[in-house]
Amino acid sequence: MTHHAVLDSNSHRDLRVRANAAAELGDGVMATLTVPSEFRSVQGHFPILFRRETGRDDFTALALFGFEPAENLFLEGGRWDARYRPWSLAIQPFLIGRPASGDGPGQVHIDLDHPRIAAGGEGVRLFDAEGGPTPYLEDIAERMGDLDDGYRASGAFFAALREHDLLEPFSLEVTLDDGSLHSLVGFHIIDETKLQALDAGALARLHADGHLMPIFMALASLSQLSALVARKNRRLASG
What we know:
By secondary structure, this protein is α+β, with helices and mostly antiparallel strands. It has one domain. 32% of the residues lie in helices and 23% in strands. The chain contains seven helices and twelve strands. It has a three-stranded antiparallel beta sheet with strand order 1-9-8, with helices on one face. Strands 3-5-4 form a three-stranded antiparallel beta sheet. A hairpin with a 2-residue loop joins β6 and β7. This is Multidrug transporter.
């Protein structure tokens, strides 16, 4: 269940949220949404894969954390074991809300039924005693704005990938140290062969439109697959 409300300093003056990382707080996920403007930060830690929306031609980009549902190999107790935390995960339990028309500036909403909503004196305050936003809330608002801008701009990125047929199906079978087999299916990656075959004019247009760098970042991120396998093997070895 969710209970979304517009965040305001009067109704939510004393509200606190749990900012630590834990599966029970919403971090127990195999992957999370990322956007092209975030790829540079994501690629140094997580593989970036693409998935087609169910029943649609649209794609989304995902930062991968594990090999099976609800598996996040970057969770170590109450600690996030990476130097970066993707925006879509970091902003929970907040979200951007807009009028039904979809026009107008976004508003900060909060899910009051989210497990990150703290009880008593736990967690981090959102507002100070005078009703001003705390540094924590200011940081969250900045990340939300970045994510919202990136998501709105991502349509042009995926349109460019479709125009040049630069997404190819991807599957991966991994045999782990204990002999078990894990498979990734239903994803896409950048087709490097087709990218290399593009002529100078097409590459220049991709660069001018700001798409070439995210493409390269998504390709570079695939080197993180072997690191993710190593994390899985360490987790299995430690029981």
